[in-house]
Give the backbone structure.
Amino acid sequence: MRVSIRTYGCTLNQSDGELMRDILEGSGAATVAEGSGPDVLVVNTCTVKKVTEQKILYRLSTLERMGARMVVTGCMASANPDLIQKYAPSASILTTSNVQRIAEAVRAASEGRRVVFDGHAGIDKPAMLGHAGGVIARVPVSEGCLSSCSFCETKFARGPLNSFPESSILNAIRYSVAHGAKEIQLTSQDTGAYGADRRTDIAELMGRIASIDGDFRVRVGMLNPEHLHKYLERFISILGHERFYKFVHLPLQSGSDAVLESMGRNYTAEEFIGYARRISDAVPGLTLATDVIVGYPGETDRDFKATMDLISEVKPAITNISKFSARPHARASRLRQLPSSVVNRRSIAVYRLTRSIQNGINSERIGMVESVLLTEHGDDSINGRDDSYRSVVVKNPVASVQLGSRVAVRIHSASASSIYGTIEGPESVLAARSSVRSA
């Protein structure tokens, strides 16, 4: 049987997609590209943003009209199965806590039978992971969360916090590294909440990961600031270990305490600034990533200015901007919405500010030689990450350069999203130069 998997959304969703691929291939199915005529299409959905939801629903309705045999999974399948029923009534439905049944669902779809697997099962996903031999391995540490953010629908899809066993996570990392992974992405709905249901935390887990043998780097996924006070100093200490990218993703969402309170975020703007400064001061070269929601219901001009002022002060290297969109189950959907003209105007303003900041930060790297792990091919480039998890693009590389290599790259230009350079040689070139300078 030939199966195509199309995944939308976050790294956690991508991890689920890879897990389903492993299960399907283990059951004898072949996973193929969508354009190569698969027998069954698996659509792994996202429900965070309305625009993404609309894109997926249009795709589902198109496939339904074409008579495609489908299994719809992911967060939309868990939070809004009624929408799937409306736009793709023949599609089977598989919720996020039932991905272990993907082979069964695909088999039914191939036979023209519609099935719905929506019971809640607290499965150990890392214990089920294989690795196809790529450079990047995405390892989930938990799903669900402890928060109750007023704008978020993912809670309804993923449920309460379910931290996976430490032993399963460590074994998944060891297995991935043994099979060629050079970058491990720890992923979750909120890595900051990891372990709260197991009397441990993400800093302790990171300490265990640091002792694993092998040549690999680890990127820690998004963690909400409300949990940081429980383990801040230990987190800072282990983040400085050479095993980890010097990168932290702390979502701000708003610089206004009034808006943060309405959102149910459980921290203040001043606390966010304190965390960002403390980590940046302690970890040289840190890349700080954050998220901002523009146009939250009730956001005043003064609230928005507070967000702009905070961004100007903290200067995150990466800012992901979202226009507020009402999600069906989220509390904020029942609040009075701002006019779209106001939301658009504010979105443009924060976009211009953040792009200027990001371009300035990345431009500081011009003329530098960076150690880069090459992780993926572009159309006419080979791309990777430096020690601070900055995106590095190498145009027209020589054919002999392989993914998974560590190379010295001289940076010659920059944009708001990436830095660009040419390979000067293996990473040892950079190490040799460093030793000469220090001597």
